[in-house]
Amino acid sequence: ALAFVGQIGESYWNAEFHRAKGDMLLASGADTVEIERCYQAALETARQQGAKSLELRAAVSLARLWQTQGNAEAAHSLLAGIYDWFSEGFDTPDLEEAGALLDALRHNA
Questions:
Q1: Distance (Å, rounded) from C-alpha 56 to C-alpha 82?
Q2: What is the model's pTM?
Q3: How confident is the model at residue 10 (pLDDT cuts 50, 70, 90)?
Q4: From residue 10, how far is each of 35, 64, 67 by CA, in Å?
Q5: Total number of domains constituting the chain
Q6: Which domain holds residue 75?
Q7: Measured by CB atoms within 10 angstroms of the end CB, which terminus of the chain is less buried, N or C?
Q8: Half-sphere exposure of 62 (CA within 13 A, CB side)
């Protein structure tokens, strides 16, 4: 999918493709190192593009992975830094999900 996107010049969604690949690997029970690599690629791509919404989605996915690995403190730190950038839209699904995860991580940290 990433090769196809590169061919047609729609690179904005590359971050989301990396994240979706990580989600598919997670669902299939793949190695968490590869899953984390996908989420990190999504995060870095979104940051390079200045795509804060896609950065938030990637951070939520990576934070959830870290939470399952017992690393709630790092997950909270990552997600809070991005979530705090937003000043509106807190009723959108992405920000609601991020806020709920932050609350859960506060209790686990």
A1: 6
A2: 0.88
A3: low
A4: 23, 28, 32
A5: 1
A6: 2-108
A7: N
A8: 30
Using alpha carbons, select from 73, 24, 66, 21 the residue that is nearest to residue 42: 21
Q: How confident is the model at residue 8 (pLDDT cuts 50, 70, 90)?
A: very low
Q: Is the dihedral of CA 75, 87, 18, 101 positive or negative?
A: positive
Q: Which residue has the tokens 């061919």?
A: 7
Whether the CB-CB separation of 83 and 95 falls below 8 Å is answered with yes
Query: 79 and 100 in contact (C-beta within 8 Å)?
Result: no
Which CATH number characterizes residue 79's domain?
1.25.40.10
- Residues 53-106: tens digit of each pLDDT: 999 999 999 999 999 999 999 999 999 999 999 999 999 999 999 999 999 999
